[in-house]
Specification:
Strand order of the largest sheet: 15-12-14-13-17-18-16
Largest sheet: 7 strands, antiparallel
Number of domains: 4
Mean pLDDT: 95
Oligomer: single chain
Strand content: 15-25%
CATH architecture of the largest domain: 2-Layer Sandwich
Amino acid sequence: MLDNSTLATLQQLCGKENVLTDKADLICYSYDATQRQFLPDVVVHPATVEEISQIMKLANEKAIPVFPRGAGTGFTGGSVPVSGGIVLGLTRFDKILEIDEDNLVATIEPGVVTEEFQKTVEKVGLFYPPDPASLKVSTMGGNVAECAGGPRCVKYGVTKDYILGLEIVTPTGDILRTGGPTMKGVVGYDLTKLICGSEGTLAIITKIIVKLLPKPAAKKTMLVMFSSIDGAAQAVSDIIRGKIIPTTLEFLDARTLECVRNATDLDVPEAAQAVLLIEVDGDPEFLDKQTGRISDIVQPLGVVETRIAETPAESEALWQIRRSVSASLRRVNPKKYNEDICVPRSKVHDMIRKIDQISEKYNIPIVNFGHAGDGNIHVNIMIDDKIPGEEKKAEEAIADVFKGALELGGTMSGEHGVGIMKAPFINLELKDTVVDYMKTIKRALDPNNILNPGKIFPSDK
């Protein structure tokens, strides 16, 4: 528990109404999408970078852990307060400060909701591509902290590719600015890229300078159903080899389609054992040509049916099959472990085969879908946690999934990060010397291990 003097100082800094100590309030900030729960001692909602600076200085003086939090949508426990202390809520930092149409740059605060930012820049003909599934609620600060991805990353890249500069507060309370609004800049170390993806362990983000693109003039969506996962996986490689980079290239495996059929009235033929949802964008006159070429490329690969949207409503109907997946999974089993491995896209088929073997080995349903265009597979291990031993089996299956991805030259996380959920497995992927190098950076920047302790590195307490 925090002493009364510390609470009084926090109230003086941020206002009593912005310092929460009631248990009902604390519970709301004790978990994220993992549902792992750790109760903080206090939740503080600062409004200025100077307030955050003072909070960090106070935390260092009194050895209080601080856990920065956006919307709490993460899948690896990155924002949960594993050792009590202060949850630092950033929702009051919610302003779009500038949209510079001359230089295609925006300056925003970390509490801006991703979809709201996208819609705002699109009103002036601009485009911010990264689109994590949580975009309707996730905040830009959290996206930067986790280096979020999404379906459009196959063509446009991930969050770090659009972050030009940051304003940050260091773990010791210093206010720094990294990078800037220019498209180039190589003076000193690239601290902006260091912070992006650091999961809130190295700095608190208080301002973000974002690169924008011109909004594509049009887009076209197509849904291709295959008789096997082999054909769908081969189609991904053949499309890319054909020098076509779709905006999105999503896949659903046979078990996912079974969930969709059972939980919705969407029309998915029984013969379809895998689906690719493909979207292209650009000048309208080229879209028909692109979808035509894609149809020609995939046709020999066991295509059951191809649907091409001609209107926005038809496009939305095709996307509804993809969007219905998460809700339909609960019919398989009540609890799921959502992992996000990534393999070279030519190895997606091999990875799905490995996952099928793991599913049989542990007698646990595993449902797969994700971003086939960049090899990012969302592996959903479904269990009934009321059955004794099921959670232990799931943990062993997860380890096997990670090992399988690594054997194929992949990674155990494409976009969710490490947090606490994957920390026990980090040495499967990274050598001790690499982990030690990262820990050296952490110790140098956060000597008292105040900021988001217990994340990424399993030995941290």
